[in-house]
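Quick start: what a row looks like.
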Amino acid sequence: MPNNIPLRFLPLFLTINVIIALALVAPAWSNELNQISQDTKLTYHGGALLTKQRTINIFLVWYGAFSPKDRTTIDNFFASLSPDEGSGRAGQEPAVSTWWKAISSYKDKAGNPVPCTVKVVKQLDDAYSLGKNLKRAQIANYIQSKIASKTLPLDSNVVYFVLTAKDVKVERFCMGSCGFHDSIPVPGKGRLAYSHVGDPSVQCPGLCAWPYAVPAYGPPGRPLLAPNGIGADGMVINIATVLAGAATNPFKTGYFQGDALAPLEAVTACPGIFGAGAYPGYPGDLKVDKGSKASYNAFGASGGKFLLPAIWDPMSSQCEVIA
């Protein structure tokens, strides 16, 4: 059974919105959220992390049709993760790279930290070769076949990302998952991490692009304006969540709380928290662009602006927001 990142990743959306439906008084839930954060404790289970090299290599598969604008947004986000690019040309803070640097506090049993550098090594376009309805097992088999044919490189410190377009339906996507990570066996290399994130803009924006879209239930409220578009910004939030989980718990033996098959991980342990003062239904205090009125909390490469979720800090044992 795959490692369901959202799995609890839907607390970003499902759990939060169920709670919202039960109560409308926000301040009371602020205390509840603080209690959840205090009760969360990710345990290191002694397994491997993505610490074999100084860089986590990313191989991207663009499955289906993506707009050039959305591709540029996601490319810029990946470029922003590394220290040399993360704060953009103007050196603005808080930066995407600063957010990712928090992951380096996760260390393996030898004391090696998760690398601060993330690099997209290769990208592959696929025009619906498996159709528009995919099972999770097909995604795993797809990655294995591309490695076997040498279409995708073989690497020991890698995450193979399959990104699906808005018209592609993936098993359990929008039904209990906004993305997931798991691993596949590769002869001579043990197991390698792979993941899936889909474009939620058509299928479930209120679930997998919150707070840039609102669900059909819960108290009334307006969604925030997305700096790059609901689909792309929803994918960025989910890519960030999945990548953090894959780096710190790639084989279900790293850092997590709860059931190994449905764990709370580095980001999913902090559901729905994006800024200070967050509570269920309210993402927290964010920056707002003066011109577009779009909300965000981090600067990236090429002037990009992104919204990134809180990360559970193993040093402070708390959910930390970028600031």
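That is the whole record. The mean pLDDT is 88. The radius of gyration is 18 Å.
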